[in-house]
Amino acid sequence: MRINKDHLYHGAALTQIAEHPEFTAINAFKIEGVACRSAFKVNDDIGAYLKYATKPTRPFGEYVFTFHASHLRELGELVKRVSSVFLVLVCVKDREICSFHYRDFKRLVERRRVAKGSDEEQYTLLVAAPKGRSLRVYVNAPGQRRMILGDEILIPRSAFPNVLFRRERTAQQAYSADAVGS
């Protein structure tokens, strides 16, 4: 079987999930019997939606993660079938994994939708990985580069994979508990 890039880069995240002490199982998420390449069920009640970017763009040094309508549909189905869903964004060159709760993703998408005044065919999340500091997730203002729309979400580099298994707390509380050098 051919090894695709997503096998390699998703594998980095899936291995860390599987090594977590609370891990019991991982399965491909299926819609109408077809496995989604980016969606996984962890321990039967946690959804993990994986994407990767190999290197940050120039000149801003941001990893770009684009979510097309098909990705949004997969996420919508995943949300219906598990108790919590997390986005897991693999930043390959920096060897970092940025993970946060789906509700934070929805907030960013809604912020962008409101600023644009309409839905878009795709949404782009940007992740910055400044040396020695927390990861930053944000969206740009419509029609503007490097004009961050609203506040960045700060994600401690140590949050993944623990954040997936800390469902009793909000994502922000889990990040705060792990935060070092924001």
TrEMBL record:
Protein name per UniProt: Uncharacterized protein
Q: What is the lineage of its organism?
A: Bacteria, Bacillati, Bacillota, Limnochordia, Limnochordales
